[in-house]
Please model this.
Amino acid sequence: MDGAFDPVIHAPARLQIMAVLAGVHDAEFSLLRETVQVSDSVLSKHLAQLAEAGYVHLRKAAQAGRQRTWASLTGTGRKAFAAHVKALQALARITDRMAAE
Amino acid sequence: MPIQADEAAAALSAMQASRENLAKAAAMSCPPERHLAFAGLMGGLVASQAADGVVVLVLEALLICGVALVVMWDRRRTGMFINGYRAGPTRPITFALLAFALSTLALCDWLKFGQGVFWAPLVGGAVVAVVGYFASSIWQSIYLRDLRSAA
Model:
């Protein structure tokens, strides 16, 4: 797959959310908040944007008497994330080469 | 979208920090009893063949319920679910263990029904449980290494 920058994923918090979700089947809201280290409101906003782009699927599930939000990457999201990371890696290699010269 | 090369490196670094946090959470939330539960289910699948008639079906139904309970336990304990069949370097372990368990199952069925060795599934189940425990532990260490080396 060719690398392609994706403006939806490029925001730092959204990239981190996508990176965490790429490592699991699905993750609960509080785990995402702790691993990405953002506030509830920031996480909610970014998850909503990723869901709107079709990259993340959100579902509500009751657990221990409370409603919890679970997030998972969609197939489209997984492909977009892989392409975006590939583009970042290609660009970062330029930095490495420049530092080496 | 035009971005600077150093910005790309910083983005990859931040991304990796999040995956490192995920690896820490995953490492802390997978105790030995989780590997034991998985081993018990794998071994139970083979050992259940020692029973006869409808009892086998009942045991297999209970094992399926056990799988569902382990998934629920994972979600409640860790706040995440990791699919054993996920793409990446863990997948060969998954398929190798599956092939071993199914081969053992077939061998035990042959020994029981073809050779009259009725206790074969019990021994096969114990072997699969031991192998399953170690395979689960190895799977987890490969998974954590994968998270830490992703970018």
Summary: The two ends of chain B are 20 Å apart (CA to CA). The beta strands of chain B are 80-81. Chain B is about 80% helix and 0% strand. Chain B has a mean pLDDT of 92.
